[in-house]
Amino acid sequence: MTELLDQVYKDQLAIWIGKTCHLRLLYKISRDGCSAATFHQKCDGQGPTVTVLYNTNNTIYGGYLSQSWHSYSNFINDPNAFLFRLQYNGSSNPLKFPIDHNSYMYAGYGKSSYGPTFGDSDIRSFSGTINKSGKYFPLNGSLNMGNIYLLNGQNVNSITNGHLQVTDLEVYQVKDGSDPNKSTEVAVGSVILDYPWRKFPEFNEEAVQQLKKLIIDFEPESDANLSAVNILLIGQIGAGKSSFFNSVNSIFRGKITSKARSGSFEHSLTTVFRKYTIKDQNSGHNLKIRLCDTRGLEENFRMDAQEIAYILDGNVPDRYQFNPSSPFTTETFGFIRNPRLGDKIHCVAFVVDGSTIDVMPQKILKQLKELQGRMNQRNIPQVVYLTKLDKVCPKVDEDASNMFYSPAVRDTVNKVADVMGLPRGHILPIKNYENETSLDPNIDILILKALKQTADFADDYLEEQVDKMAAEGKRKEKD
Ligand SMILES: Nc1nc2c(ncn2[C@@H]2O[C@H](COP(=O)(O)OP(=O)(O)OP(=O)(O)O)[C@@H](O)[C@H]2O)c(=O)[nH]1
Ligand SMILES: [Mg+2]
Q: What is the distance in A from the centroid of ligand 1 to the CA of 436?
C-alpha cells in the first residue's frame, strides 16, 4: 500500500521543519490497524516524526514532534513542535501552527493506551483499538485546539472540520538528508516552482520604466480636487515602514537614499507622524502620492485606536510628535478641526514582516484587528506590504524576481491573508532596500507595483467619497 502524502506536502513539511530531510512511513492505520499498541510498537523511540490525519472532508492536518514518541504516561517536552494543516476540503492550503513558547513542555503526550496526542488536549487522536466503520475510522479522541499551539486566527473547524472521522492516519519518521531513493534532491527553502503562483509583469528594466511612468502620470480622481492621495503605513515596530518610504524615494531619486530613519531598536524608531512627498528626479515634479509614516505598534505600547481614527480622518498635522503617555486628542496643539478630503487617509498599507508572522504576538494581532475595525467603519481600502521575504526564501534573497516562484512566499501570503481577513490579491510581497548600495530593477518592480496598486485603491475610495458628497449635496438642495 502506498503512502498518501503528496511530494509537494512532504516538501512543505521539510520547509517548516527547517532542514533538508525526507520522510519514511512508520505506521498507517489502514495498513497496520488502528491500535494504540501497534502505534507505540512501530513509532516509539524513532526520533522526530510527522503525524498526518486524512478526514472524510478531504482535509489533511496533523502535527510534528522533534522528540520521540514513548509510552511512559508522560508529556513530551519539545520547543520545535508544531501543528499544521496542508489541505482543507480538498484544496491545498498549508498553514503552520507553532507551539506557544510558554507551554512547550506539553508538546505531546506518550501513553501506551493512547494513539498520537499533541498538547495536553489539542489533538487526542484515539485510545485503545478502533475498527473501521464503512469507509472511515471513527476515532474516539477529541480536538481542543488552540490550547498549547497558536492557531493564528484559525480554529478547530477551519483546520479539522471539527471531527475525527478519518480515512487514514499516517506517522512518518523524519530522516536527515535527502531521500536516497530519489534522484532529485530538494534542499529546504530553495524549492522553486516551474510556474508562478501569481501573474506578474516581466522582471526587466522596460517594466520598471513603464511602472514608473504610470506612477508619475497618476492623478487622483479629478472631481476630488486633491494634490495627492494619502497612503498610511502602519504595522509592528521594525516591520519596514520607513524602509518602504526610503525604497520608493530611492527609486525616484535614482540612487539609494534614506530620508526616513530606519533600523532595529527596542522601541519604535519613528516617533513623528510624517506625510512624505516624493519627488521624481528626472521631471522635478512631485508624485501625486503621499506616504504617511507612523509610530510602530509594540506589544507593551498600545497604539490608541482613537489616535489612529484621528489620523484616518485628517485631524493630525504633519510632523506631530507621538507621545505614548498622552495620546492625541481634540485639545492637542495642532489638531485640525475641519479636515478636508485631501487631509484624510485614502488607503492603508499594513506593513507586515513576513519572516516573523508565525510568532506575531497576540497583543499585536489584537491591536491590528482593532485598527482594522476603524478602517472598515470608514470603508478605507487596505493592503498589506509583506516585507523581509528575503529571509523567508534564500532564492528571493539571491534574486527578488524569484518572489512569485517561491512556495515559501506563497504560503506566507496565504497565512497573512487568513490572519488579516483580506483577499490574497491585497497581500503584496515586496523586498525593501536595506543592505543594497545600488538600485536593482527586480526590487524596483515589486515596490512600484505595490505602490501603483495602492494608489489605484486610494483612487477608488476617492471616487466613492466624491459620489457620496454629491449625493449628500443633492439631498441638501432638496431640503
Ligand atoms: N532583510 C530585510 N530587511 C528589511 C526589509 N525591510 C526592512 N528591513 C530592515 O528592518 C529594520 C527595520 O526597518 P524600519 O524601516 O526601520 O522599520 P519601521 O517599521 O519603520 O520601524 P519603526 O519605525 O521602529 O516602527 C531595518 O534594519 C531595515 O533595514 C526587507 O524587506 N528585508
Ligand atoms: Mg519607522
A: 13
Domains of the chain: 7-176 (no CATH), 205-478 (3.40.50.300)
Does 1 score more than 60 pLDDT?
Answer: no
Question: Does the pLDDT value for residue 267 go beyond 60?
Answer: yes
In this structure, of 269-273, 292-296, 379-383, the range with the lowest mean pLDDT score is 269-273
Instruction: Indicate which residue's Cα is closest to atom 7 of ligand 1.
Output: 240
**Which residues line the pocket of ligand 1, CB cutoff 6 A?**
235, 237-243, 262-264, 268-270, 296, 351, 387-388, 390-391, 431-432, 434
Report how far ligand 1's centroid is from the alpha carbon of 259 (Å). Answer: 13
Q: Which ligand is nearest to the CA of 296?
A: 1
CA nearest neighbour of 207 among 434, 432, 365, 441? 441
Q: What is the mean pLDDT of residues 358-370?
A: 84
Q: What residue owns the CA closest to ligand 1's atom 32? A: 388
Q: Which triple of cell numbers denotes residue 376? A: 472598515
Of residues 49 and 477, more confidently modeled: 49
pLDDT confidence band for 47 (50 / 70 / 90): very high
CA 269–ligand 1 middle distance (angstroms): 10
Q: What is the pLDDT of residues 316-352, one digit of tens each?
A: 999 998 887 788 889 988 999 999 999 999 999 999 9
- Position 187 scores a pLDDT of 44
Which atom of ligand 1 is the closest one to the Cα of 351? Answer: 19
Sequence-distant (6+) residues with CB within 8 A of 339 are: 313, 314, 315
**pLDDT for the residue 176:** 87
State mean pLDDT over 276-284: 94
Q: What is the pLDDT of residue 268?
A: 66
Q: How far is CA 105 from CA 77, 78, 217, 349, 396, in A?
A: 4, 6, 58, 38, 35
Q: Which of 297, 432, 433, 437 should be mutated for ligand 1, with most atoms under 8 A from CB?
A: 432
**234 CA from centroid of ligand 2 (Å):** 9
Distances (CA, A) of 384 to 71, 122, 212, 422: 46, 31, 21, 9
